[in-house]
Write a structure and sequence with these properties.
Largest sheet of chain A: none
Number of strands of chain B: 0
CATH class of the largest domain in chain B: Mainly Alpha
Helix content of chain B: over 70%
Oligomer: heterodimer
Order of helices and strands of chain B: HHHHHHH
Structural class of chain A: mainly alpha
Strand content of chain A: under 5%
CATH architecture of chain A: Orthogonal Bundle
Radius of gyration of chain A: 17 Å
CATH topology of the largest domain in chain B: Four Helix Bundle (Hemerythrin (Met), subunit A)
Strand content of chain B: under 5%
Largest sheet of chain B: none
CATH topology of chain A: Helix Hairpins
Chain lengths: 102, 161
């Protein structure tokens, strides 16, 4: 019989694999952001799981609330960066961003 | 345990749909649905406040940010869309195979950790913990939000003529 930690651990690892693969394989900058978001969801689940199993849910929740604030901040700022890249290059496909070459 | 397995499978399926789908908007909607199911799991793990934040911010606000960003970019022509769809499929068909293999492998390993953490003195009420012990977190969060506002203002500042 698999433990609760083992069960959640498997799914957290699979989510991490999906997120990392997405970031590595995609060429679209907005999709990279979505990949980061998937990784953060796996991190959220693992923090809450650790709090639940360790009997310290309140501390885990306070950490997750901070994590979510940081998540929004990253999405807003990097979304601004992506829009600026689009403004200057009319493209967000990383394989076609020639102007980035020094 | 059975409900947990169903919910976790649902989260994984939503994640895979987010990753595999060709349309960017579908991908964002998949991400929002992932957050919705994740918030149900957080409720079940005795973390209602984190679940509420996850539901309102990650399933509500972040898709809006993504859709706004997407709306500023240009739609692909049908020819470009078909070409990119084929290229995407060539790059991404490995992922479900890798996920299934990793899942089977990890479930066969029977990983068992003795997850008994040393118990420090802690507050188990989020309100008291947040306002009495972790109040500096709030300052950090305010600083982060101000940094975000500053960043956005700098990025969208028009050059003076």
């Amino acid at each position: 019989m698999i433990s609760l930690f083992g069960l959640f651990g498997i799914f957290i690892v699979l989510m991490l694999i999906a997120g990392i693969y997405y970031i590595v394989a995609t060429l679209n900058l907005i999709r990279v952001l979505i990949g980061i978001e998937i990784l953060m969801k796996a991190a959220t689940l693992s923090i809450i799981l650790a709090g639940y199993l360790g009997g310290n849910s309140a501390l885990a929740q306070s950490m997750v609330i901070t994590l979510i604030v940081i998540e929004v901040e990253i999405m807003v700022v990097v979304g601004g960066v992506v829009l600026n890249v689009y403004r200057h290059n009319h493209n967000i496909d990383t394989s076609e961003l020639r102007k980035l070459k020094g | 345990m059975m409900i947990d397995i169903i919910l976790l499978t649902l989260v994984l399926l939503m994640t895979l749909w987010t990753v595999m789908t060709t349309r960017l908007l579908s991908s964002v909607i998949g991400l929002a649905l992932t957050s919705v199911v994740l918030s149900v799991i957080l409720f079940r793990l005795n973390s209602p406040w984190a679940a509420v934040f996850e539901l309102s911010v990650c399933a509500g606000l972040i898709p809006v940010i993504f859709i706004t960003t997407i709306s500023f970019t240009q739609r692909l022509t049908p020819e470009q869309f078909i070409t990119r769809k084929k290229k995407r499929l060539a790059r991404f068909w490995y992922l479900p195979v890798i996920v299934i293999l990793a899942g089977v492998l990890l479930s066969r390993l029977h990983l068992s950790f003795d997850f008994t953490l040393p118990q420090p003195a802690f507050e188990n009420n989020l309100k008291d913990l947040f306002w009495n012990q972790r109040h500096l977190d709030l300052l950090g969060q305010i600083a982060i939000l101000l940094a975000a506002v500053f960043g956005v203002v700098v990025f969208f500042k028009e050059a003076k003529q």
